[in-house]
Each structure stands twice: as C-alpha cells, then as structure tokens.
C-alpha cells in the first residue's frame, strides 16, 4: 500500500469561528495551504445537528441544519474553498453515537427516547458529560449510516471520518431491553452485571466492528475512491472504556487511514504510546495507514514549538509519514507561532513536512 502523506487538521465549531462565514473559511484554507497542509477534517455532525442541509435530519428531527447556519451550507463552502487550493476534504462526524453533552439526551432523545443507551441500573447512559444513543441498536446504526451516506452521495469529498464516538459506546452501556434480549437469545442468560467482563466487552465490541464493516462496504458501493478514516482512542483503553476494537478493524481491512488520538502533553508520553502501537498493533502492511492524532490545543493548553518538532521528527524516524492536528485554532495562537514552525520546515526543503 502506498504511504499516504497526511498533513491534516480538524476544523471545529468549538472555540473557533472558521465556519462563521464563507470568507472565514476561504481565509482558513489559504492559511492552511500556505502552511503545507493537504487535508482538512471539517466537523459536520455535532450536538444532534449537521453543518450541511440534511434531509435525513429533517425527517428524523424536523430541522435540516444547525440553526446557526440556516440559509448556508458550510460543508459545500469548505469543499469549494479547499478544492480551489488542491486540499482534500474528509468530513468528520464528531458526535458519532453521542446524542448530547450535559443536556439529558437533548433534542434527539426527546424525539426518539427508544434510541437511548442504558447502563446496568437502567439509567440514561452518560460518560464524561456526554449522553449516548444505543450504538448497538440497528435503527440507531441505520440513522448514523444514512447521515454518512448522504454526505458521500451529495458532496465532492475525499473521505469520511469517525472518531472516539463512532463507532463507539461507553462500556457501561448495553443494558437496554433489546440488547439484553439479543444476548439472552445467544447465550441463554442475562449479560454480566460487571460491564468490564471480558467476554461481554468483546461481544458488544464485535457488534460495533460489524457496523463499521457495513459502513465501509456501503461507502465504497457509492464511491470506491472515498476513504474511510477513523480516529479512535488508544487501544486497549478504548476497548475497555468505549468498545473500540481497532486491531480488529485493521485486521479486517475496515479502515483506509487511522488516527489514534495520542493526546499527550509531553514528548516522552507521546513516544511511549507510538512505540507501543508500532510494536504491538501495526504491521508493515498496516503502518502506512497510520497518521496519529496530535493535540495541538485544548482549553488553555497549547503544545510548544519544540514539542511539535519532536513529534514530527520522531514520527518520520518510525516510518510514520503524516499526522492530524487538533485543532485549527492552535496554529493561529500567539501570532501563528506553530504555523511558523511548520512553514520554516517547508521553506527549508526538509522532507519532514511536505
């Protein structure tokens, strides 16, 4: 497999005004192209709303786009401005199977209460502030898949992306009546009360892997050139906490590119995880698919220029040819400090960054 040199960045609606107008989008694309980036990952699904006019959303919720963007199509604007500069566009379905954040399920579960994920007490499934849909429910899966296919069919895009919430489900979940019945039919008993029981973890993770296989297949039927990109959390923490079995995804060929979220704030922690991934999870065949997710900015944190250089240099030493940064605004802080580091590499002709 040819190595894909991915120099990517996530475009968010959180702490960012990039999507506020087409002019801002155009300015961001110009800036990224000048800095040496070649792929953008614009968010298109969060807080139970889309950043493009969606017939699926209208049929399900009665709204067709995040009300903030009514009358516009931010995804179409990103595609137009990115294409102008030769940048690739991979829409990112950020919320995945999460329905809301600290909103008790939000509009989606108000409309579709039967879609709720449940913990062993029967409560609405909630983890780290996010309330969850039941990702094991075929109807819920069909809804997410239809949103993804709608984008693949209607936009000139290069790929689609899931993340630490797609496909995913907090391992505390899976205790909905339908899921319990499904388990009982297969094993003749109720699921274990312990959500971290190894066999129970694997059974639920396998259902999510099957969903990803279906997603991969259906995307490729619409357009075989559209890449399926995933940005899961790091295995096997992600397996135990969110039922993400990324080694199985790689083994079964269900991802074209993968961006494990190595959101560490110092180089030695980052290096330790890269070493483990390379030694334990990736093979010569799958390594070319790896472009780690790097935390550039979160809240008041921003990575230092020194750390940025260390990460890129170490990745290249390991045969990793790209990375994706979270997120765009991290490049713009402190008078574009981090972007200047990348441009300097670009201008020097060093093959680290082009």
How would you describe this structure to a colleague?
By secondary structure, the chain is of the alpha/beta class. It has one domain: TIM Barrel. Helices cover about 40% and strands about 15% of the residues. The protein is built from 12 helices and 16 strands. The strands form 5 sheets. Strands 5-2-1-16-13-12 form a 6-stranded parallel β-sheet. A 3-stranded antiparallel β-sheet has the order 6-8-7. The two termini are about 20 Å apart.
Main CATH class:
Alpha Beta
Q: Looking at the chains present, what oligomeric state does this protein adopt? A: single chain
SS class: alpha/beta
Query: How is the biggest beta sheet arranged?
Result: 6 strands, parallel
The tally of strands reads: 16
Q: What's the helix count?
A: 12
Round the mean pLDDT to the nearest integer and report it: 96
Q: Structurally, how many domains make up the residues?
A: 1
Residue ranges: pLDDT <50 for 5 or more in a row? none
Order of strands, main sheet, comes to 5-2-1-16-13-12
Order of helices and strands: EHEEEHHEEHEEHEHHEHHEEHEEEHEH
How much of the sequence is in beta strands?
Answer: 5-15%
CATH topology type = TIM Barrel
Question: Could you say which overall geometry the principal axes of the C-alpha atoms support?
Answer: globular
**What's the CATH H-level homologous superfamily?**
Glycosidases
- What is the CATH architecture annotation? Alpha-Beta Barrel
Q: How far do the termini sit from each other?
A: 19 Å
Task: Evaluate the radius of gyration.
Answer: 20 Å
- The portion of residues assigned to helices is 40-55%
